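In the design runs reported in the main text, the only information available to the sequence generator was the tokenized backbone. The following block is the verbatim input for one such run; it is reproduced so that readers can re-run the procedure and compare outputs position by position.
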């Protein structure tokens, strides 16, 4: 299953996401097209063959970019939905396969 990862807590309180573009990272989101070269370190990014569907608080987000940025790691850029501040379930799917349940993102007040 594809995975979504929230920022790990630090010694200080994490900063909530706000309106605008958010970068989400994960693994297991499928293949890039064209594929990154095998056995070499690469720079840049390789677009996923299929764009994922990302929902925050049940609202489908606009996915601007989805691609492999380092071996095994996918970056997904989404336009944040216009929701009140709070904790929201973040869900993703690609080709009918859903991400793991129970991942949340904290949205802060609009800037």
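Verbatim output:
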């Amino acid at each position: 299953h594809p995975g979504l990862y929230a920022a790990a807590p630090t010694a200080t309180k994490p900063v909530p996401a706000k309106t605008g573009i958010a970068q989400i990272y994960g693994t297991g989101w499928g293949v890039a097209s064209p594929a990154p070269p095998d056995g070499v370190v690469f720079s840049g990014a390789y677009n996923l063959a299929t764009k994922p569907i990302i929902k925050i608080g049940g609202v489908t987000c606009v996915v601007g970019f989805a691609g492999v940025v380092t071996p095994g790691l996918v970056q997904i850029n989404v336009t944040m939905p216009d929701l009140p501040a709070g904790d929201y379930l973040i869900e993703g799917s690609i080709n009918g396969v859903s991400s793991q349940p129970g991942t949340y993102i904290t949205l802060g007040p609009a800037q």
